[in-house]
Amino acid sequence: MVRVLSAVDLLTLATAVLSCVGLCVTVRQLRILRTLSWRAVVVTLLVFAGSFFTSAVLAQVVLGFTG
């Protein structure tokens, strides 16, 4: 089982899952998105940016320790 699963690339699986999630956005969800305030959009962008930069810093620290 490990031999078979080790041949599967994680990025390939992640791409397929993310494309399915993107297709699952419905008209109802788009209506809800339009009713949100601009503040919610700003908070969302700040959370995404913070998450990205925190992950990048953490990865840089780990790579620095491991060489």
Quick overview of this protein structure:
Helix content is 85%, strand content 0%.
Care to describe what's here?
The protein is mainly alpha-helical and 67 residues long. It contains 4 helices and no strands. The longest helix has 29 residues.
The value of Rg in angstroms is 18 Å
Helix content: over 70%
Number of strands: 0
**What structural class do the secondary elements suggest?**
mainly alpha
Give the biggest sheet.
none
The helix tally amounts to 4
Question: What are the SSEs and their pairings?
Answer:
Layout: H1 2-6, H2 10-23, H3 27-35, H4 38-66
List keywords for this structure.
mainly alpha, 67 residues, single chain, 0% strand, 4 helices
